[in-house]
Amino acid sequence: xxSAPKQDPQTMxxxxxxxxxxxxxxxxxxxxxxxxxxxxxxxxxxxxxxxDVVPLENARRGADYVAAMGRxxxxxxxxxxxxxxxxxxxxxxxxxRARLEFDRPLRTGGVVRTVTTIxxxxxxxxxxxxxxxxxxxxSGTVRPTVIPEAAFSVPVGTHxxxxxxxxxxxxxxxxxxxxxxxxxxxxAAWRRFTMEAGGDPARTGVGVDYLAVxxxxxxxxxxxxxRFLRELQAVLRxxxxxxxxxxxxxxxxxxxxxxxxxxxxNLKDGPYVLVTHTDLDAARVPLRVATRSAA
Length: 295
Fold this sequence. Notes:
The protein has 295 residues and is of the alpha+beta class. Helix content is 29%, strand content 31%.
């Protein structure tokens, strides 16, 4: 059966889309009318897709790609929201194509730019959607990661042990998390607050699953804890470099306002995330970034 004539002369047919997918080094997926993955090209299956705007664990044939974008958007991922809206628009016939550009900082100081093209593909009367990703990595100048609360910067390649020593003099409560969200180091201010607030060091110190602590607070109905958890998970996954959020922390005692920050670090020992809690009641004078270094 012959395909119906294309209404838009610039719109690809299914055969043209398949040829393009096999010829390009870009990562491509073809979505059916329901938004599920109909086909992925070799570049897509070969890539880990960790540099994608929304890295997906299950992005194989049959997976509901549009639903995954929708869930990510509901969890606060703006890039996913933009992609979801454009795919839906093309599915509804409101547009034939869209182009989106996203920049994401790397832990090493460079920038990943992802150009996403979304195109309508006509197969007879059926409207399919082709999504293609082009990634450009700009190494740029590898700069130290500035930690305002600690008043120093952390150069790429710093040893974890050296960072621990520097954090001991930091007035903000600081904890270093591994890639799974477990605490591998805390500073003196963190330990002191635990003691003063009547907390249990066994539940707040080294070896504790910090993600589980945040999840427990979120399950209690604390909306700010829920947001903090989502953003922290995004940093751990490498989807963003840093974020800040205000919350109240009590550990069983009187809750006080704190500003929490999570920052991705690329240390000599591997990737880590530094979490700091700054007491807003005590922070009367703005902190100034000093010229000294943690290295």
